[in-house]
């Protein structure tokens, strides 16, 4: 999974792939 607190939006690509799909 993704740690939304510490590394959600380090980059826009990471943000859309991880923040919007945190189960990944």
Polypeptide structure, described:
With 24 residues, the chain is an all-alpha fold. Helices cover 50% and strands 0% of the residues. The protein has helices at residues 4-7, 12-19. It is flat and about 15 Å long. The model has no long low-confidence stretch (mean pLDDT 59).
**Helix proportion range:** 40-55%
Q: DSSP strand (E) fraction?
A: under 5%
| Contiguous helical run count | 2
Order of helical and strand elements: HH
Number of strands: 0
Biggest beta sheet summary:
none
How far apart the termini lie comes to 5 Å
Oligomer category: single chain
* Spans of at least 5 consecutive residues with low confidence: none
Give the averaged pLDDT, no decimals: 59
Structural class: mainly alpha
Rg, alpha carbons: 7 Å
Based on CA inertia axes, which overall geometry fits? Answer: flat
Pfam family, one: SPRING1
Tag the structure with descriptive keywords.
24 residues, mainly alpha, SPRING1, flat
Protein topology:
Layout (H helix, E strand, L loop, with lengths): L3 H4 L4 H8 L5
Write a brief structural summary:
The protein is mainly α and 24 residues long. The protein is built from 2 helices and no strands. Pfam families: SPRING1.
């Amino acid at each position: 999974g993704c740690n939304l607190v510490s590394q959600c939006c380090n980059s826009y690509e990471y943000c859309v792939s991880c923040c919007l799909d945190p189960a990944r």
